[in-house]
Amino acid sequence: EVVMTQSPATLSVSPGDRAALSCRASQSVSSNLAWYQQRPGQSPRLLIYDASTRATAIPARFSGSGSGTEFTLTIDSLQPEDFATYYCQQYDNWPRGGFTFGPGTKVDI
Amino acid sequence: EVQLLESGGRLVQPGGSLRLSCAASGFTFNKYGMTWVRQTPGKGLEWVSTFNGNGGNPHYADSVKGRFTISRDNSKNTLYLQMNSLRVDDTGIYFCAREDWGYYDSWGQGAQVIVSS
Lengths: 109, 117
Hints:
The structure holds two protein chains of two kinds.
Chain A: E1 4-7, E2 10-12, E3 19-25, E4 33-38, E5 45-49, E6 53-54, E7 62-67, E8 70-75, E9 85-90, E10 100-101, E11 105-108
Chain B: E1 3-7, E2 11-12, E3 18-25, E4 33-40, E5 44-51, E6 59-60, E7 68-73, E8 78-83, E9 92-100, E10 103-107, E11 111-115
Parallel strand pairs in B: 2-11
Antiparallel strand pairs in B: 1-3, 3-8, 4-5, 4-9, 5-6, 7-8, 9-10, 9-11
C-alpha cells in the first residue's frame, strides 16, 4: 500500500498570505495525485488532479506541482473561505483501487 | 448539475448489517465509476470500494473485503453498499463519490454510520 504523508499537520496563516502544503508518497505515484479541500461539516471538494490540473471552477490562486513522491499545493493570497483542511490522494493503481489519502493539513487563522 | 444523495445511515449494533444507497442525478450514471469513501476518527479519509463504470469487477479495501458488497442499478441511477458483520471501527461518515480516472470529482453529503452497543 502506498502511504501518504502531509506536512505540516496545521498551518497558521493570515488572510492574504501564501500557503504551501506538502504531500509525500512512500513510493512513486507518477503524477497520479489529487488535492481536496474540506470545510467543517462539508464533504471534500476536488481542487487539483493529475498533480497540477485545476478542477472545474477552482480559482487560479490554487496551484499544484510535483511528481513521483513529492507534491505541493500552493494557495496564493488566502481568502477567508480557504481556511479548511486539505487532503492529498494518490490513484496510481487505477482502476484497481487501493487509493490512499494523506492525513490532511489544516489551514487556520 | 451533478448531485449525489446518500441515505441509509443509522446506529447499528456490532455484528449487524446496513445498506447504504446513493442516488445520482445530473450526469450519465452508467458511464462513470462510482466509489464509497469513508471518514473515520481513527483513519481519516479511507477508500472503501469502487464499482467501475465499464462493468468491470468491483474493488474493495482489505479492511472491508468479505464483509461489504458494492453494487449499482444503472436503471435507477443508484449505487449501494451492503455492509455486514459491522465492527465498531466501521463507524464514520460514508461518502458516495463519482470517479474520473481515479480521482473523485463529485461527492455526496455523506451518511453517518454508528456501530455501537
